[in-house]
Here is the input.
Amino acid sequence: MWIGFRPCRPWHRDKGSKQEPAAPAASAPAAPAPAANIYVVGTDAAYAPFESQNGKGEIVGFDIEVVQAVAQKAGMEVKFLNTPWEGIFNSLGQGDRDLLVSAITITDERKQTMDFSAPYFDAQQLIAVKKDSKIAKFDDLKRLKVGVQNGTTGDEVITRLQGKDSANIKRFESTPLALKELEGGGVDAVVADNGVVVHYVNNNANAQFRTISDTSFAAEQYGIAVKKGNAELLEKINKGLAAMKTDGTYDQIYAKYFGAAPAAPAAAASK
Ligand code: ARG
Here is the structure.
């Protein structure tokens, strides 16, 4: 190794030195090959139980375990990077992230700019209100202050109800921020994905929330997103997903987070 020849050489570089310590001579033995191909996974880790940061700052959750299992089946190495929802789709388009897992609902609009794996989870919007609230159904939110995470499907449904210029829609950077606002009384309701709302209500008894579902909410499905046209990666992911569903890994992860095997393997059955 280069530094072996000059054990006394100071670490900082001498001015005018011809040797570039950072660039070993061409004859130096090749450095160990960098771990094949590490796929960078973007996730907005403020969305328990799907993705969140634990006390040690590690990114954990249902989505994380699903992608880890997919990667294992597909022989891929993955690394998760916390990526704010606001810029998450751009990070994919720009190539800063190879794939996204973030409880992302597959929508026709999003399909224009990215490609999705087969669906891996069924979801629906759910309303959170204070226990003593008089709100009974979605339509009651027409003229009330409603908190959502900016740019989510929750944002879409309330925007449709109130109109896009409504001053009563309070758009937050994250869903927990919207729920905190409800706790503090700054909004009358929050509309977000059922899994996240239920998890929050169950884990924050002192918030005194209850939930309201509404038949007008469409069925949603989560998918793993890749850059539009990245068919090679998409195929790996879909094969990995299929394999971890077939061998029971998916059900195990599902049971760990949601207490039972999924009622119907809708995700597996869909196109
Ligand atoms: N499913 C909703 C959507 O796709 C919300 C997802 C938000 N995910 C997150 N990790 N913050 O719009």
Remarks:
- The chain is about 35% helix and 20% strand.
- The first strand starts at residue 38 and ends at 43.
- The two ends are 54 Å apart (CA to CA).
- The domain at 125-212 is CATH 3.40.190.10 (D-Maltodextrin-Binding Protein; domain 2).
